[in-house]
Amino acid sequence: MFALAVSIGILSYTLMGLGLLGILLNKAILIVTLIFLSTSPLWFPSPNLGEGTKRRGIFLYAILIIQILVNLVGALGPELGFDALWYHTTVPKIWLTNQKITFLWGDLYYSGLPKLIDMLYVYPGSQLIHFSFGILTLLVIYKMARKYLNSTYSLLACIIFYSNLVVGWQSITAYIDLGRTFFEILALYLFVEKKYFQTAVILGLAISTKILALGSLVIFGFLGFPIIYFLISIIIPLPWLLFNYLNTGNPVYPIFSSYPIDWNFSINILRLADPINPIYVMVTPLIPPLKLRGGQGVILIYCILSFVIWFLTPHSGGGRFLMPYLPAWSILTAILIQKNKFFITMAIVLAIVSLGYRGIANAKYIPYLLGVQTKQEFLNKYLYDRFR
């Protein structure tokens, strides 16, 4: 999985290089893509999510597959996400049209921030690209959970994560947060494995995806991450920070400029604009009596620190800014409830409720996917009418 993450990073930075050289041409992109795909057999061994043969394991596996399919329906539909239409897909498409990367002033002032995932949106199917990072995140969750749980409860950890309404929403739109989420949980997994160099590289890719991932360096610092590796994590996003600095005089522009920041410390975690699974709050009474050691203890401390970091950062993103840490929260939750029938039942019930909610929300895409409704008719009904 580390090889896959690095390959994605190399692909993105290669596309950036083409853009800075003014040769972001379709032919050049095709050549780079073919080279990227030719290395695919070396990327990662795929975990067998269906290895549990018990009835409960099959039931959980079925829930997960249905969750994925429901989100896929939305990912195949037209884009409705505000930020996706504002700049996540617009900026790379402008660069592709101009065949070069330049700083875009005006309403596209985010164009100088790190764009590791955004650069992939020069390809068609940007929603499916972002959707795929949700699937990759599930694979890492399962792989990490298997260090402490059997296959059934590892599947439950995946379901708890994928049951978050914010994850369901992000899975159908071309934002970047699922990309960061994939890098964040992979970094934690590598850290638990004591692969510190690889951890530093992946953290660098997370920062190159979203600048807020700098907060994760603080978390890993408290966990005992060797200081010498911090430099690696900072060097990786440096090309984007330098690009931003040369164009604006501020490496993280528009942050620390006239950019409005929401420092609302009275925010309620159960009433976020982008809701998360309430199971995380429900199981907190199970934490004090539990003595977690080794990797499990690291996960617990990581979860606590991640909440602190999220709480101290701007809350304009609501649950979306918390999402990168939810994989670890999901694994910890599965560890806590593995012998508690009540909480196991609650986790499954909440998953089914979430599935129903997302199913209803994504049902609007079905007429379009079946050809009953044109794209223009769909957008007139669900997008343009919102701004009239």
Question: How would you portray this structure in words?
Answer:
With 388 residues, this protein is an all-alpha fold. It is built from 20 helices and no strands. The protein has one domain (54-86, 124-261, 280-387). The chain is globular. It starts with a helix and ends in a 6-residue tail after the last helix. The mean pLDDT is 89.
Which key phrases capture this entry?
388 residues
In short:
The protein is mostly helical and 388 residues long.
Q: Average pLDDT, to the nearest integer?
A: 89
Order of SSEs: HHHHHHHHHHHHHHHHHHHH
Strand composition percent:
under 5%
Q: Helicity, in percent?
A: 55-70%
Radius of gyration: 21 Å
End-to-end gap: 46 Å
> How would you sum up the global shape?
globular
**Helix count, per DSSP?**
20
Q: Could you say which structural class the secondary elements and strand pairing correspond to?
A: mainly alpha
**Poorly predicted regions:** none
How many strands, which pairing sense, and closed or not: the largest β-sheet?
none
Q: Compute the number of structural domains.
A: 1
Tally of DSSP β-strands: 0
